[in-house]
């Protein structure tokens, strides 16, 4: 992918708010990437939002940015665009990215890359048929702490890795899943929309785990719903009294064996108050000669790559280079850079497909009370 000319990007979903506006747009237009990417067009759901976004980013990149809205075939077939980024709600992933693939454009697609395994398979097959390259929004693997862990393991700092476990928490204060939910985010609690605790925090965790330690060869899972009812809250966080039934579980216990023979356990619980002493994220990797620990008490720590955890080797703090600027923006910028350079650890649509098959196996194991082999 590396070339002297910057990659000309058309961005679908780069509006005034949300993940794309907060992280992806700013990281893509980071000064360090000016020689690698050039944002030339945006596409949103309305004329007004598209024009506002185009004006905002024209000031950032120093030249006019085209504004499209509606059907993404317009931006996908723009001859000045050779790469299409799509960051919208999961139910629209397939519909909006397929025109870009059909037009033969390389693409970025936000995780979970479709609402279901079937949709991800269709996207991956289309990309394969067209021979286009892909980048998926699984930025946790680019965390500076995770990169340091990779370095420590490769150097033999803890000997042969034999087991690993993750314990994490999604607190009620985040208010995007029950028991307390902003009404505009109800879609996250509907199973058909594919953006729940299994696909989002656990999906990111499992990508980071398998990227470091290898893929699962078998998995057993227990999935439970302890908060079956969600209560709407207003913008101040006060319950409105209105409730709705949740369609997504909130407790997951996953055990398995990796292809390397490593035993892995992942436990996510959610819905509790995030008071003092409540551990939000703990990941231990145990080798024959020592252990590595990543931990954080930040409310968003359950999703890797958003918040940098603290790193310990055999109980001692490890200094992570660049930690002062680490976090979601930094991780996303690293992913963009690696894709442009054509090498590195960035995630592709094939990685997304592999993870969706793992998540499907987890649900099958829980539903049928059996171990599933991958």
From TrEMBL:
Domain Gfo/Idh/MocA-like oxidoreductase N-terminal: 7-134
Keyword vocabulary terms for this entry: Oxidoreductase
SUPFAM superfamilies cross-referenced by the UniProt entry: Glyceraldehyde-3-phosphate dehydrogenase-like, C-terminal domain (SSF55347), NAD(P)-binding Rossmann-fold domains (SSF51735)
Highest rank taxon of the organism: Eukaryota
Residue ranges annotated for the Gal80p-like C-terminal domain, each copy included: 146-296
Entry's Gene Ontology molecular function annotations: nucleotide binding; oxidoreductase activity
Keyword Oxidoreductase: yes
Coiled coil regions in record: none
Organism encoding this protein: Cyclocybe aegerita
Name listed for the protein in its UniProt record: Gfo/Idh/MocA-like oxidoreductase N-terminal domain-containing protein
Keyword Oxidoreductase included in the entry's annotation: yes
């Amino acid at each position: 992918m590396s070339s002297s000319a910057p990659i000309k990007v058309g961005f679908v979903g780069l509006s005034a708010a949300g993940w794309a506006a907060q992280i992806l747009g700013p990281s893509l237009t980071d000064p360090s990437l000016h020689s690698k990417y050039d944002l030339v067009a945006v596409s949103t759901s309305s004329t007004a939002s598209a024009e506002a976004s185009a004006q905002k980013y024209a000031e950032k990149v120093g030249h006019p940015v085209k504004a499209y809205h509606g059907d993404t075939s317009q931006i996908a077939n723009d001859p000045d665009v050779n790469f299409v980024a799509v960051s919208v709600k999961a139910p629209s992933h397939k519909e909006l990215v397929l025109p870009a693939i059909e037009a033969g454009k390389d693409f970025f697609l936000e995780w979970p890359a479709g609402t279901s395994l079937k949709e991800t398979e269709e996207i991956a097959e289309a990309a394969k048929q067209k021979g286009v390259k892909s980048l998926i929004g699984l930025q946790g693997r680019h965390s500076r702490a995770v990169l340091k862990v990779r370095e420590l393991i490769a150097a033999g700092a803890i000997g042969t890795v034999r087991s690993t476990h993750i314990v994490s928490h999604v607190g009620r204060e985040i208010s995007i899943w029950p028991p307390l939910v902003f009404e505009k985010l109800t879609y996250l609690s509907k199973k058909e929309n594919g953006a729940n605790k299994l696909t989002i925090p656990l999906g990111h965790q499992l990508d980071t785990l398998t990227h470091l330690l290898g893929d699962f060869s078998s998995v057993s899972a227990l999935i439970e719903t302890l908060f079956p009812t969600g209560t709407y809250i207003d913008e101040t966080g006060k319950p409105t009294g209105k409730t709705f039934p949740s369609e997504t579980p909130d407790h997951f216990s996953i055990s398995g064996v990796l292809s390397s023979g490593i035993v892995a356990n992942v436990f996510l619980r959610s819905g509790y108050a995030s008071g003092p002493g409540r551990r939000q994220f703990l990941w231990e990797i145990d080798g024959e000669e020592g252990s590595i620990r990543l931990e954080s008490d930040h409310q968003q720590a359950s999703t890797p790559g958003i918040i940098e955890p603290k790193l310990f080797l055999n109980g001692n703090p490890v200094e992570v280079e660049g930690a002062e600027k680490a976090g979601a923006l930094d991780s996303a910028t690293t992913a963009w850079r690696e894709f442009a350079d054509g090498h590195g650890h960035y995630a592709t649509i094939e990685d997304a497909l592999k993870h969706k098959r793992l998540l499907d196996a987890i649900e099958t194991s829980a539903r049928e009370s059996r171990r599933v082999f991958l």
